[in-house]
Sequence to fold (451 residues):
Amino acid sequence: MVASNHDTHDTIAAIATAHGRGGIGVVRVSGTRLDGFAQGLCGKTPRPRVATLCDFSDDDGGRIDQGLALYFPAPHSYTGEDVLELQGHGGPVVLQRLLKRCLTLGARVAEPGEFSKRAYLNGKMDLAQAEGVADLIDAATEQAARCANRSIHGEFSLAIHALARQLVELRALTEATLDFPEEEIDIGTRDDQLRRLAVIRTQLDTLLAASDQGSLLRDGALVVLAGQPNAGKSSLLNRLAGEEIAIVTEIPGTTRDAIRQSINLYGVPVHVIDTAGLRESADPVERIGIARTWDAIEKSDLAVLVIDGVKGESAEDRAILARLPKGLPCLLVYNKADLANKPMARAGDSESPRVTLSAKTGEGIEALRKALAEAIGWRGEAEGVFMARARHLDALRNARSRLAQAQTETRRQELFAEELRQAHEALMSITGEVTPDDLLGEIFSRFCIGK
Ligand SMILES: Nc1nc2c(ncn2[C@@H]2O[C@H](COP(=O)(O)OP(=O)(O)O)[C@@H](O)[C@H]2O)c(=O)[nH]1
Ligand SMILES: [Mg+2]
Fold:
Protein backbone atom coordinates (compact mmCIF):
# COMPACT_ATOMS: atom_id res chain seq x y z
CA MET A 1 0.00 0.00 0.00
CA VAL A 2 1.14 3.51 -0.72
CA ALA A 3 2.56 5.55 2.09
CA SER A 4 1.09 9.00 2.34
CA ASN A 5 2.62 12.35 3.16
CA HIS A 6 -0.75 13.70 4.21
CA ASP A 7 -1.82 13.98 7.77
CA THR A 8 -4.37 11.21 7.83
CA HIS A 9 -4.90 11.29 11.55
CA ASP A 10 -6.87 14.48 11.98
CA THR A 11 -10.65 14.35 12.19
CA ILE A 12 -12.61 15.30 9.10
CA ALA A 13 -16.29 16.16 8.76
CA ALA A 14 -18.64 16.96 5.89
CA ILE A 15 -22.28 17.15 4.96
CA ALA A 16 -22.59 13.96 2.94
CA THR A 17 -26.04 14.48 1.46
CA ALA A 18 -26.80 16.71 -1.53
CA HIS A 19 -27.28 20.45 -1.10
CA GLY A 20 -30.73 21.80 -0.48
CA ARG A 21 -33.73 20.54 1.44
CA GLY A 22 -34.44 16.88 2.05
CA GLY A 23 -36.23 14.62 4.47
CA ILE A 24 -32.98 13.57 6.06
CA GLY A 25 -29.48 14.97 5.89
CA VAL A 26 -26.28 13.27 6.92
CA VAL A 27 -23.12 14.70 8.44
CA ARG A 28 -20.24 12.29 8.34
CA VAL A 29 -17.18 12.36 10.58
CA SER A 30 -14.02 10.26 10.38
CA GLY A 31 -10.95 10.22 12.60
CA THR A 32 -9.11 8.30 15.24
CA ARG A 33 -10.89 7.93 18.58
CA LEU A 34 -14.27 9.52 18.04
CA ASP A 35 -15.82 8.22 21.27
CA GLY A 36 -15.16 11.48 23.11
CA PHE A 37 -16.30 13.42 20.09
CA ALA A 38 -19.58 11.50 20.02
CA GLN A 39 -19.97 12.07 23.77
CA GLY A 40 -19.64 15.83 23.28
CA LEU A 41 -22.07 15.96 20.41
CA CYS A 42 -24.66 13.32 21.32
CA GLY A 43 -24.29 13.24 25.10
CA LYS A 44 -23.26 9.58 24.87
CA THR A 45 -21.15 7.24 22.82
CA PRO A 46 -23.62 5.29 20.68
CA ARG A 47 -23.32 1.51 20.69
CA PRO A 48 -21.28 0.47 17.68
CA ARG A 49 -23.38 -0.03 14.55
CA VAL A 50 -26.69 0.52 16.35
CA ALA A 51 -28.94 3.39 15.29
CA THR A 52 -29.18 5.55 18.39
CA LEU A 53 -31.65 8.36 18.91
CA CYS A 54 -29.86 11.41 20.34
CA ASP A 55 -30.08 15.13 20.83
CA PHE A 56 -27.28 16.80 18.90
CA SER A 57 -26.16 19.58 21.19
CA ASP A 58 -24.60 22.92 20.36
CA ASP A 59 -21.57 24.55 22.02
CA ASP A 60 -23.80 26.07 24.71
CA GLY A 61 -25.63 22.81 25.33
CA GLY A 62 -28.71 23.86 23.38
CA ARG A 63 -30.30 21.38 20.97
CA ILE A 64 -29.44 21.65 17.29
CA ASP A 65 -31.61 18.75 16.24
CA GLN A 66 -32.77 15.34 17.32
CA GLY A 67 -31.66 12.53 15.09
CA LEU A 68 -29.93 9.22 14.74
CA ALA A 69 -26.27 8.65 15.37
CA LEU A 70 -24.38 5.70 13.92
CA TYR A 71 -20.98 4.87 15.29
CA PHE A 72 -18.55 2.59 13.44
CA PRO A 73 -15.37 2.12 15.48
CA ALA A 74 -12.18 1.36 13.55
CA PRO A 75 -11.39 -0.72 11.65
CA HIS A 76 -14.92 -1.78 10.69
CA SER A 77 -15.96 1.37 8.87
CA TYR A 78 -15.92 2.87 5.39
CA THR A 79 -12.65 4.70 5.99
CA GLY A 80 -11.09 2.15 8.29
CA GLU A 81 -11.02 4.81 11.05
CA ASP A 82 -13.69 5.62 13.63
CA VAL A 83 -16.66 6.95 11.69
CA LEU A 84 -19.66 8.78 13.11
CA GLU A 85 -22.71 9.42 10.96
CA LEU A 86 -25.27 11.89 12.17
CA GLN A 87 -28.69 11.75 10.53
CA GLY A 88 -30.63 14.91 11.15
CA HIS A 89 -33.45 16.75 9.44
CA GLY A 90 -32.33 17.59 5.93
CA GLY A 91 -32.48 21.37 6.01
CA PRO A 92 -29.41 23.36 5.04
CA VAL A 93 -29.41 25.38 8.28
CA VAL A 94 -29.64 22.32 10.52
CA LEU A 95 -26.85 20.56 8.68
CA GLN A 96 -24.61 23.63 8.62
CA ARG A 97 -25.05 24.03 12.39
CA LEU A 98 -24.27 20.37 12.90
CA LEU A 99 -21.15 20.67 10.75
CA LYS A 100 -20.07 23.82 12.59
CA ARG A 101 -20.46 22.02 15.90
CA CYS A 102 -18.21 19.23 14.60
CA LEU A 103 -15.60 21.85 13.77
CA THR A 104 -15.63 23.31 17.26
CA LEU A 105 -15.20 19.78 18.58
CA GLY A 106 -11.95 19.59 16.63
CA ALA A 107 -12.81 18.35 13.16
CA ARG A 108 -11.89 20.13 9.97
CA VAL A 109 -13.96 20.25 6.79
CA ALA A 110 -13.16 17.27 4.58
CA GLU A 111 -11.87 17.77 1.08
CA PRO A 112 -13.82 16.23 -1.80
CA GLY A 113 -13.30 12.47 -1.82
CA GLU A 114 -11.29 12.51 1.39
CA PHE A 115 -13.32 9.75 3.06
CA SER A 116 -12.72 7.47 0.10
CA LYS A 117 -9.09 8.47 -0.01
CA ARG A 118 -8.69 7.39 3.59
CA ALA A 119 -10.49 4.15 2.78
CA TYR A 120 -7.92 3.58 0.06
CA LEU A 121 -4.94 4.56 2.21
CA ASN A 122 -6.17 2.29 4.99
CA GLY A 123 -6.42 -0.65 2.61
CA LYS A 124 -10.22 -0.81 2.66
CA MET A 125 -10.30 -0.78 -1.13
CA ASP A 126 -7.90 -0.29 -3.97
CA LEU A 127 -7.77 2.68 -6.28
CA ALA A 128 -9.91 1.19 -9.05
CA GLN A 129 -12.58 0.32 -6.48
CA ALA A 130 -12.50 3.84 -5.03
CA GLU A 131 -12.88 5.27 -8.51
CA GLY A 132 -15.85 2.92 -8.97
CA VAL A 133 -17.51 4.67 -6.00
CA ALA A 134 -17.25 8.05 -7.72
CA ASP A 135 -18.38 6.53 -11.01
CA LEU A 136 -21.45 4.98 -9.40
CA ILE A 137 -22.45 8.36 -8.00
CA ASP A 138 -21.89 9.98 -11.40
CA ALA A 139 -23.49 7.19 -13.46
CA ALA A 140 -25.88 8.61 -16.05
CA THR A 141 -27.56 5.36 -17.03
CA GLU A 142 -28.59 2.16 -15.29
CA GLN A 143 -26.04 0.15 -17.26
CA ALA A 144 -23.28 2.55 -16.24
CA ALA A 145 -24.36 2.20 -12.60
CA ARG A 146 -24.24 -1.61 -12.81
CA CYS A 147 -20.84 -1.44 -14.39
CA ALA A 148 -19.52 0.91 -11.68
CA ASN A 149 -20.90 -1.46 -9.06
CA ARG A 150 -18.81 -4.26 -10.49
CA SER A 151 -15.71 -2.09 -10.15
CA ILE A 152 -16.53 -1.32 -6.52
CA HIS A 153 -16.83 -5.02 -5.83
CA GLY A 154 -13.42 -5.54 -7.31
CA GLU A 155 -14.16 -7.30 -10.61
CA PHE A 156 -11.98 -4.94 -12.60
CA SER A 157 -9.22 -5.15 -9.98
CA LEU A 158 -9.45 -8.95 -10.03
CA ALA A 159 -8.94 -8.99 -13.78
CA ILE A 160 -5.93 -6.69 -13.42
CA HIS A 161 -4.50 -8.83 -10.65
CA ALA A 162 -4.97 -12.04 -12.62
CA LEU A 163 -2.94 -10.53 -15.42
CA ALA A 164 -0.34 -9.12 -13.05
CA ARG A 165 0.10 -12.51 -11.40
CA GLN A 166 1.06 -14.11 -14.69
CA LEU A 167 3.36 -11.24 -15.42
CA VAL A 168 5.04 -11.73 -12.06
CA GLU A 169 5.67 -15.39 -12.89
CA LEU A 170 7.18 -14.47 -16.23
CA ARG A 171 9.29 -11.79 -14.56
CA ALA A 172 10.54 -14.27 -11.98
CA LEU A 173 11.43 -16.72 -14.71
CA THR A 174 13.24 -13.97 -16.59
CA GLU A 175 15.08 -12.48 -13.61
CA ALA A 176 16.46 -15.96 -12.91
CA THR A 177 18.13 -16.00 -16.33
CA LEU A 178 19.86 -12.67 -15.83
CA ASP A 179 22.70 -14.21 -13.82
CA PHE A 180 23.66 -16.39 -16.73
CA PRO A 181 25.44 -15.39 -19.90
CA GLU A 182 23.17 -15.09 -22.91
CA GLU A 183 24.32 -18.28 -24.63
CA GLU A 184 23.56 -20.43 -21.60
CA ILE A 185 19.84 -19.79 -21.59
CA ASP A 186 18.36 -22.96 -22.93
CA ILE A 187 15.90 -23.00 -25.73
CA GLY A 188 13.18 -24.48 -23.53
CA THR A 189 13.29 -21.50 -21.19
CA ARG A 190 13.05 -19.09 -24.07
CA ASP A 191 10.10 -20.98 -25.55
CA ASP A 192 8.41 -20.91 -22.18
CA GLN A 193 8.92 -17.17 -21.94
CA LEU A 194 7.44 -16.57 -25.36
CA ARG A 195 4.49 -18.83 -24.73
CA ARG A 196 3.68 -17.07 -21.46
CA LEU A 197 4.11 -13.66 -23.06
CA ALA A 198 1.69 -14.55 -25.85
CA VAL A 199 -0.97 -15.63 -23.34
CA ILE A 200 -0.58 -12.43 -21.35
CA ARG A 201 -0.80 -10.27 -24.45
CA THR A 202 -4.00 -11.94 -25.62
CA GLN A 203 -5.61 -11.49 -22.22
CA LEU A 204 -4.53 -7.89 -22.06
CA ASP A 205 -6.15 -7.24 -25.45
CA THR A 206 -9.41 -8.72 -24.20
CA LEU A 207 -9.26 -6.60 -21.06
CA LEU A 208 -8.53 -3.50 -23.09
CA ALA A 209 -11.49 -4.14 -25.39
CA ALA A 210 -13.82 -4.54 -22.38
CA SER A 211 -12.40 -1.38 -20.81
CA ASP A 212 -12.80 0.61 -24.01
CA GLN A 213 -16.49 -0.22 -23.98
CA GLY A 214 -16.67 0.73 -20.31
CA SER A 215 -15.21 4.14 -20.97
CA LEU A 216 -18.05 4.75 -23.44
CA LEU A 217 -20.54 3.83 -20.72
CA ARG A 218 -18.86 6.20 -18.33
CA ASP A 219 -18.08 9.20 -20.51
CA GLY A 220 -20.59 8.74 -23.31
CA ALA A 221 -20.12 10.30 -26.72
CA LEU A 222 -20.64 13.73 -28.23
CA VAL A 223 -22.75 13.72 -31.38
CA VAL A 224 -23.40 16.85 -33.45
CA LEU A 225 -26.41 17.25 -35.73
CA ALA A 226 -25.23 19.37 -38.64
CA GLY A 227 -26.61 20.28 -42.00
CA GLN A 228 -28.35 22.96 -43.99
CA PRO A 229 -31.11 25.07 -42.52
CA ASN A 230 -34.51 23.39 -42.55
CA ALA A 231 -33.12 19.89 -43.08
CA GLY A 232 -34.83 18.88 -39.83
CA LYS A 233 -32.00 18.85 -37.25
CA SER A 234 -34.04 20.37 -34.46
CA SER A 235 -36.96 18.07 -35.24
CA LEU A 236 -34.54 15.13 -35.06
CA LEU A 237 -33.15 16.24 -31.69
CA ASN A 238 -36.68 16.50 -30.34
CA ARG A 239 -37.52 13.07 -31.72
CA LEU A 240 -34.41 11.47 -30.21
CA ALA A 241 -34.97 13.17 -26.87
CA GLY A 242 -38.70 12.44 -26.86
CA GLU A 243 -39.32 16.06 -25.85
CA GLU A 244 -39.82 19.41 -27.55
CA ILE A 245 -36.45 20.85 -26.63
CA ALA A 246 -35.46 22.80 -29.71
CA ILE A 247 -37.69 25.27 -31.53
CA VAL A 248 -38.87 23.97 -34.89
CA THR A 249 -40.30 26.29 -37.57
CA GLU A 250 -40.42 26.32 -41.33
CA ILE A 251 -38.25 29.47 -41.24
CA PRO A 252 -34.65 28.65 -42.19
CA GLY A 253 -32.14 29.88 -39.61
CA THR A 254 -34.35 29.34 -36.55
CA THR A 255 -31.71 27.61 -34.45
CA ARG A 256 -28.81 29.82 -33.40
CA ASP A 257 -27.46 28.62 -30.05
CA ALA A 258 -26.20 25.07 -29.97
CA ILE A 259 -28.68 23.07 -27.89
CA ARG A 260 -27.38 20.11 -25.98
CA GLN A 261 -29.40 17.17 -24.74
CA SER A 262 -28.29 13.85 -23.32
CA ILE A 263 -30.08 10.74 -24.47
CA ASN A 264 -29.75 7.16 -23.32
CA LEU A 265 -28.58 5.04 -26.24
CA TYR A 266 -28.78 1.40 -25.10
CA GLY A 267 -27.17 2.49 -21.83
CA VAL A 268 -24.58 4.85 -23.27
CA PRO A 269 -25.12 8.49 -22.38
CA VAL A 270 -24.97 10.26 -25.74
CA HIS A 271 -24.80 14.03 -25.70
CA VAL A 272 -26.55 15.29 -28.83
CA ILE A 273 -25.98 18.86 -29.97
CA ASP A 274 -28.42 20.59 -32.30
CA THR A 275 -26.77 23.42 -34.17
CA ALA A 276 -27.45 26.39 -36.41
CA GLY A 277 -27.85 25.31 -40.03
CA LEU A 278 -24.80 25.78 -42.19
CA ARG A 279 -25.19 28.32 -44.98
CA GLU A 280 -23.86 31.68 -46.12
CA SER A 281 -25.61 34.27 -44.01
CA ALA A 282 -25.52 38.04 -43.66
CA ASP A 283 -27.24 37.96 -40.29
CA PRO A 284 -24.53 38.59 -37.65
CA VAL A 285 -26.31 36.51 -35.00
CA GLU A 286 -26.78 33.58 -37.35
CA ARG A 287 -23.13 33.82 -38.38
CA ILE A 288 -22.04 33.45 -34.75
CA GLY A 289 -24.34 30.44 -34.52
CA ILE A 290 -22.72 28.92 -37.61
CA ALA A 291 -19.22 29.48 -36.22
CA ARG A 292 -20.35 27.66 -33.07
CA THR A 293 -21.62 24.78 -35.16
CA TRP A 294 -18.13 24.29 -36.58
CA ASP A 295 -16.62 24.52 -33.07
CA ALA A 296 -19.04 21.85 -31.86
CA ILE A 297 -18.17 19.62 -34.82
CA GLU A 298 -14.45 19.95 -34.01
CA LYS A 299 -15.02 18.65 -30.48
CA SER A 300 -17.45 15.87 -31.36
CA ASP A 301 -16.99 12.12 -31.62
CA LEU A 302 -19.44 11.81 -34.49
CA ALA A 303 -21.06 14.18 -36.98
CA VAL A 304 -24.57 13.44 -38.20
CA LEU A 305 -25.18 15.25 -41.47
CA VAL A 306 -28.93 15.79 -41.78
CA ILE A 307 -30.10 16.13 -45.39
CA ASP A 308 -33.54 17.12 -46.60
CA GLY A 309 -34.42 13.91 -48.44
CA VAL A 310 -37.11 15.58 -50.52
CA LYS A 311 -34.67 18.00 -52.08
CA GLY A 312 -32.04 15.32 -52.17
CA GLU A 313 -28.40 15.76 -51.53
CA SER A 314 -27.09 19.04 -52.89
CA ALA A 315 -23.76 20.65 -53.70
CA GLU A 316 -24.06 22.44 -50.33
CA ASP A 317 -24.36 19.12 -48.51
CA ARG A 318 -21.29 17.83 -50.31
CA ALA A 319 -19.42 21.01 -49.37
CA ILE A 320 -20.28 20.48 -45.69
CA LEU A 321 -19.18 16.86 -45.93
CA ALA A 322 -15.87 17.92 -47.47
CA ARG A 323 -15.26 20.44 -44.70
CA LEU A 324 -15.71 17.95 -41.83
CA PRO A 325 -12.48 17.28 -39.92
CA LYS A 326 -10.52 14.42 -41.38
CA GLY A 327 -10.96 11.20 -39.48
CA LEU A 328 -14.19 12.29 -37.81
CA PRO A 329 -16.78 9.55 -38.30
CA CYS A 330 -19.90 10.76 -40.07
CA LEU A 331 -23.41 9.43 -40.44
CA LEU A 332 -25.72 10.64 -43.23
CA VAL A 333 -29.39 11.05 -42.42
CA TYR A 334 -31.94 11.53 -45.21
CA ASN A 335 -34.88 13.14 -43.46
CA LYS A 336 -38.54 13.73 -44.39
CA ALA A 337 -39.08 10.19 -45.64
CA ASP A 338 -42.80 10.76 -45.05
CA LEU A 339 -42.82 13.27 -47.91
CA ALA A 340 -40.49 11.67 -50.37
CA ASN A 341 -42.24 9.52 -52.92
CA LYS A 342 -39.08 8.88 -54.87
CA PRO A 343 -36.06 6.92 -53.63
CA MET A 344 -33.84 9.02 -51.40
CA ALA A 345 -30.76 10.50 -52.95
CA ARG A 346 -27.48 8.91 -52.03
CA ALA A 347 -24.16 10.64 -51.54
CA GLY A 348 -22.22 8.97 -54.30
CA ASP A 349 -18.66 9.21 -53.07
CA SER A 350 -19.10 9.01 -49.32
CA GLU A 351 -18.53 5.76 -47.52
CA SER A 352 -20.33 6.98 -44.42
CA PRO A 353 -23.25 4.89 -43.24
CA ARG A 354 -26.65 6.35 -44.06
CA VAL A 355 -30.16 6.17 -42.65
CA THR A 356 -33.45 7.26 -44.18
CA LEU A 357 -36.04 8.46 -41.68
CA SER A 358 -38.73 10.91 -40.81
CA ALA A 359 -38.18 13.11 -37.77
CA LYS A 360 -41.84 14.02 -38.06
CA THR A 361 -43.40 10.54 -37.92
CA GLY A 362 -40.58 8.70 -36.14
CA GLU A 363 -40.20 6.18 -38.95
CA GLY A 364 -36.59 4.98 -39.16
CA ILE A 365 -35.58 6.36 -35.74
CA GLU A 366 -34.75 2.94 -34.29
CA ALA A 367 -32.51 2.30 -37.31
CA LEU A 368 -30.82 5.63 -36.56
CA ARG A 369 -30.26 4.69 -32.92
CA LYS A 370 -28.63 1.45 -34.05
CA ALA A 371 -26.47 3.24 -36.59
CA LEU A 372 -25.45 5.83 -33.96
CA ALA A 373 -24.46 3.11 -31.51
CA GLU A 374 -22.40 1.38 -34.14
CA ALA A 375 -20.75 4.62 -35.27
CA ILE A 376 -19.60 5.51 -31.75
CA GLY A 377 -18.26 1.98 -31.29
CA TRP A 378 -20.79 0.59 -28.80
CA ARG A 379 -21.15 -3.13 -29.20
CA GLY A 380 -24.35 -3.15 -27.21
CA GLU A 381 -23.45 -5.39 -24.31
CA ALA A 382 -22.90 -3.86 -20.88
CA GLU A 383 -22.26 -7.17 -19.10
CA GLY A 384 -18.61 -8.08 -18.75
CA VAL A 385 -17.61 -4.50 -19.52
CA PHE A 386 -15.31 -2.64 -17.15
CA MET A 387 -15.94 0.94 -16.11
CA ALA A 388 -12.61 2.23 -17.27
CA ARG A 389 -11.40 5.78 -17.02
CA ALA A 390 -8.98 7.45 -19.40
CA ARG A 391 -6.30 6.82 -16.76
CA HIS A 392 -6.98 3.09 -16.84
CA LEU A 393 -7.00 2.94 -20.63
CA ASP A 394 -3.69 4.82 -20.78
CA ALA A 395 -2.14 2.36 -18.33
CA LEU A 396 -3.49 -0.66 -20.21
CA ARG A 397 -2.25 0.68 -23.54
CA ASN A 398 1.09 1.46 -22.00
CA ALA A 399 1.34 -2.09 -20.68
CA ARG A 400 0.34 -3.41 -24.09
CA SER A 401 3.06 -1.51 -25.92
CA ARG A 402 5.63 -2.58 -23.29
CA LEU A 403 4.72 -6.20 -23.87
CA ALA A 404 4.85 -5.75 -27.64
CA GLN A 405 8.31 -4.29 -27.19
CA ALA A 406 9.32 -7.17 -24.90
CA GLN A 407 8.40 -9.59 -27.66
CA THR A 408 11.16 -8.10 -29.83
CA GLU A 409 13.77 -8.25 -27.05
CA THR A 410 13.86 -11.91 -26.14
CA ARG A 411 17.47 -12.21 -27.26
CA ARG A 412 18.48 -9.51 -24.80
CA GLN A 413 17.22 -10.68 -21.46
CA GLU A 414 18.02 -7.46 -19.56
CA LEU A 415 15.87 -5.43 -21.95
CA PHE A 416 13.21 -8.11 -21.97
CA ALA A 417 13.12 -8.01 -18.17
CA GLU A 418 12.94 -4.24 -18.14
CA GLU A 419 9.96 -4.11 -20.52
CA LEU A 420 8.16 -6.66 -18.36
CA ARG A 421 8.88 -4.61 -15.27
CA GLN A 422 7.42 -1.49 -16.84
CA ALA A 423 4.34 -3.33 -18.10
CA HIS A 424 3.82 -4.66 -14.59
CA GLU A 425 4.18 -1.20 -13.10
CA ALA A 426 1.63 0.22 -15.55
CA LEU A 427 -0.88 -2.45 -14.54
CA MET A 428 -0.34 -1.90 -10.84
CA SER A 429 -0.89 1.84 -11.22
CA ILE A 430 -4.53 1.03 -12.03
CA THR A 431 -5.24 -0.53 -8.67
CA GLY A 432 -2.95 1.92 -6.94
CA GLU A 433 -0.16 -0.35 -5.80
CA VAL A 434 2.31 2.04 -7.40
CA THR A 435 0.80 5.47 -7.63
CA PRO A 436 2.46 8.78 -6.95
CA ASP A 437 0.85 11.06 -4.36
CA ASP A 438 0.07 13.88 -6.78
CA LEU A 439 -2.00 11.49 -8.89
CA LEU A 440 -3.96 10.52 -5.78
CA GLY A 441 -4.74 14.17 -5.13
CA GLU A 442 -5.93 14.53 -8.71
CA ILE A 443 -8.17 11.47 -8.56
CA PHE A 444 -9.86 12.16 -5.23
CA SER A 445 -10.36 15.89 -5.78
CA ARG A 446 -13.00 15.01 -8.36
CA PHE A 447 -15.18 13.19 -5.85
CA CYS A 448 -18.19 14.63 -4.04
CA ILE A 449 -17.71 16.25 -0.67
CA GLY A 450 -18.63 13.78 2.03
CA LYS A 451 -17.68 10.73 -0.01
N1 LIG B 1 -42.76 16.38 -43.44
C1 LIG B 1 -41.70 16.52 -42.66
N2 LIG B 1 -41.31 17.72 -42.24
C2 LIG B 1 -40.24 17.84 -41.45
C3 LIG B 1 -39.51 16.69 -41.03
N3 LIG B 1 -38.49 17.12 -40.23
C4 LIG B 1 -38.61 18.46 -40.16
N4 LIG B 1 -39.65 18.89 -40.89
C5 LIG B 1 -40.09 20.28 -41.09
O1 LIG B 1 -39.03 21.01 -41.67
C6 LIG B 1 -38.97 22.33 -41.14
C7 LIG B 1 -37.59 22.59 -40.55
O2 LIG B 1 -37.41 21.75 -39.44
P1 LIG B 1 -36.33 22.05 -38.32
O3 LIG B 1 -36.29 20.88 -37.42
O4 LIG B 1 -36.54 23.37 -37.70
O5 LIG B 1 -35.02 22.08 -39.23
P2 LIG B 1 -33.56 22.62 -38.86
O6 LIG B 1 -33.49 23.98 -39.39
O7 LIG B 1 -32.64 21.69 -39.57
O8 LIG B 1 -33.39 22.57 -37.39
C8 LIG B 1 -40.10 22.43 -40.14
O9 LIG B 1 -41.22 23.03 -40.75
C9 LIG B 1 -40.37 20.98 -39.79
O10 LIG B 1 -41.69 20.79 -39.37
C10 LIG B 1 -39.93 15.41 -41.49
O11 LIG B 1 -39.37 14.36 -41.22
N5 LIG B 1 -41.03 15.38 -42.31
MG1 LIG C 1 -32.95 24.01 -36.11
